[in-house]
Amino acid sequence: MDFANRIGAELRAGATSRPNINPSDTTEVVGEFAQGTASDVADAVAAAREAFPAWSRTSPMERHGILMRAAAEVAARAEELATLLAREEGKTLADARGEVGRAAQILAFFAAEAVRLMGETGPSIRPGVTVEITREPVGVIGIITPWNFPIAIPAWKIAPALAYGNCVVFKPADLVPACAWALVDILIRAGLPAGVLNLVMGPGRSVGEAIVTTRGIDAVTFTGSVATGRGIAAACVASQPMKKVQLEMGGKNPLLVLDDADLDVAVRVALDGAFFQTGQRCTASSRLIVTEGIHDRFVAALTQAMAGLTVGHALDAATRIGPVADAGQLSTDLGYIEKGRAEGAQLVAGGEILNRPTQGHYLSPALFTEATNSMAIAREEIFGPVACVIRVRDYDEGLAVANDTDFGLSAGICTTSLKHATHFRRNAEAGMVMVNLPTAGVDPHVPFGGRKGSSYGPREQGSLAREFYTTVKTGYIG
Ligand code: NDP
């Protein structure tokens, strides 16, 4: 079956289509998905603009109802959607279930936010004059998402956009259109009027660029790599009129392990943060910064724990680490493993292509020791199951190394010292800080985002999401 784009009330086939391939078994086609064009984007923008006046004036309770119905359907179909997610992206079924559950939670959270949006009124400094501060929808939002969270990231952008009365033109990553298609279908059937939510699938260089440059899109929210994000921001500022822009990009997240850490906790936190979901999380702990006194014990215990990680087909119940998402990402991972060796780091575990009964992109999780923070494997986001251990003298050096990065998404520390935990929480240059917890894993109701090269613009998720999806009006009543 071919999955078509959704433009206005129309299910529109693409001029061409693209097979969605299962990375656990590259002989399996998950589905054929339409490839849209810039002209499809133009039609989607026109449909969204036409729908906007009526949609932006709907009762918040109506938007609440639609988002709640969508949340209920996502939850009711969790097993089917999780299986689809695991097949198209390679996340294990357990992790896919978690992601689908999160999408349902996000839809429910923003359903409530729709009816919670209030303004403020107060006296002007001019006697007898009242001033009110209200929030209005921004208009038509262009949404561009990456491949590593095929349903959660679309949900956390689409749900607030709709909750606050915006219309949407959405382009998912071309590698993972199936969950995106299912989510859009669920939302439309939950009661969205035609044109409020439009889906145009296809490559970033055509469909994505059209979203960024087409007049009629008021704001663009993007999650993906720094290079693409930088170009999108420049194009949004250059467009006429300028588009509001929000970017969530990469990470090179540090996990600082101190001498006084509980070793079991530190190993569990590092194993999860560095390797679960095949290391393909922007919040993954790819730099393990370890103080001298615990270094050797930590490396020995972590490599032992890594040996117990079963790499295999995402749908196999025994699998803990699924395949790498595609051949391109696998070659990037292998390239960095080579680079790490060439730079003088010691590969102490993994980093090998694995053969499994099905043809998939299987790579054993790789750990480097004797890395320095100036090596490419410590500075550049790899986005795979590759982590490096950097040895430091003490907490102060560890904090300095943790902060010595162009990124600032998440940062973690494993310690039993309240003093160091508190100091780290206050001084880590990151948007999210974790003590004795993996750097990945932020609740759906709190702000998500970072600093420096990791994020640009207002935070996503939680109530702060309204900063991007609404625009403030200051009104005077004489
Ligand atoms: P990319 O930047 O390559 O792509 C992200 C999205 O942008 C895709 O939909 C892509 O299309 C699209 N795109 C590509 N080029 C353009 C363009 N010129 N104009 C408009 N859109 C374009 O990132 P990946 O998909 O490879 O995702 C991995 C990256 O995402 C990692 O760097 C990771 O850190 C980051 N990420 C960040 C998160 C965060 O919240 N900070 C969360 C999750 C991931 P297509 O690929 O379909 O061609």
Look at the helices and sheets and give the structural class: alpha/beta
Rg of Cα set: 23 Å
Instruction: Give the helix level as a range of percent.
Output: 25-40%
Q: What ligand species are in this complex?
A: NADPH dihydro-nicotinamide-adenine-dinucleotide phosphate
What is the arithmetic mean of pLDDT?
98
Please give the count of helices. Answer: 15
Adjacency order of strands in the biggest sheet: 15-16-17-14-13-18-19
Please identify the oligomeric state.
single chain
Q: Outline the low-pLDDT stretches.
A: none
Largest sheet: 7 strands, mixed
**How many extended strands?**
21
Query: Which outline best applies?
Result: globular
Distance between the termini: 61 Å
In percent terms, what proportion of residues is strand? 15-25%
Description:
This protein is of the alpha/beta class. It contains 15 helices and 21 strands. It has helices at residues 38-56, 60-76, 78-89, 93-114, 152-163, 177-189, 204-213, 226-238, 263-275, 292-307, 327-343, 376-379, 395-403, 418-427, 466-469, and strands at residues 2-3, 5-7, 10-12, 16-22, 25-35, 120-123, 130-137, 140-144, 167-171, 197-199, 219-223, 244-248, 253-257, 285-291, 346-349, 366-371, 386-392, 410-414, 432-435, 455-456, 470-477. A seven-stranded mixed sheet has the order 15-16-17-14-13-18-19, sandwiched between helices. Strands 10-9-8-11-12-20 form a six-stranded mixed sheet, sandwiched between helices. Strand 6 and strand 7 (130-137) form a beta hairpin. Helix 2 crosses helix 6 (177-189). It starts with a strand and ends with a strand. NADPH dihydro-nicotinamide-adenine-dinucleotide phosphate binds next to helix 7 and helix 8.
